[in-house]
Amino acid sequence: MKLNTKNLKAIQDLYPDELAHCYGCGKMNPNGFHLKSYMVDNETIAHFTPEPKYTALPGSVYGGLLASILDCHGTGSAAAFVCENENIPLDGSINIPIRCVTASLKVDFKAPTQMGVALELKGKLRSIEGRKIWVDMTLSANGTICASGEILAIRLKD
Ligand SMILES: CCCCCCCCCCCCCC(=O)SCCNC(=O)CCNC(=O)[C@H](O)C(C)(C)COP(=O)(O)OP(=O)(O)OC[C@H]1O[C@@H](n2cnc3c(N)ncnc32)[C@H](O)[C@@H]1OP(=O)(O)O
């Protein structure tokens, strides 16, 4: 079901402009995917509809694209979970001061991912240990989990 984002702020839109050039999710990158992830009830959600040029086999989505959007959903989720943990607001009143980058990303491709539908990505916090944040993710098409992912994101030092 499509998420109503009317009263929500995308995590990636809370990055300051100078750190928002990521190809996958940066609002300042005119050529990028502009993935937007939202915190909803202690999990993160993003929707993304790939263009047909990202085809693997006819009718299904190229796995590299799926890994790419899981990567950005994972780092955004990691930053958001740290903010929640530290009572930093995600309501847009401030740019978030937390920066996380991918140290490790694992993706399991479980079923072909149908082209032409809005994909749903979800993230759940597994753990935070110091600067290390582990997030478990799923990517679904029409309610079928097509890929699962796990990311280790590292919080950058100030
Ligand atoms: C790039 C700057 C952008 C900033 C803005 C971001 C906005 C968002 C942009 C969106 C981005 C979208 C997504 C993208 O595309 S992000 C782009 C792709 N990612 C990168 O380019 C990251 C490249 N790597 C690094 O810069 C450094 O290696 C980092 C920063 C990750 C850590 O180097 P640092 O010197 O800071 O820390 P450390 O080496 O003491 O490690 C710390 C702890 O982590 C553990 N560890 C490390 N690696 C691994 C591993 N592979 N498996 C398991 N564990 C690992 C390590 O053992 C240690 O544990 P412990 O000993 O403490 O227990």
UniProtKB/TrEMBL annotation:
InterPro entries: HotDog_dom_sf, THEM4/THEM5_acyl-CoA_thioest, Thioestr_dom. Residues 59-138 form the Thioesterase domain. SUPFAM superfamilies: Thioesterase/thiol ester dehydrase-isomerase. It is found in: Cell projection, Ruffle membrane; Cytoplasm; Membrane. One of its GO terms (molecular function) is thiolester hydrolase activity. Pfam families: 4HBT. Keywords: Apoptosis, Cell membrane, Cell projection, Cytoplasm, Fatty acid metabolism, Hydrolase, Lipid metabolism, Membrane, Transit peptide. It comes from the Bacteria. This is Acyl-coenzyme A thioesterase THEM4.
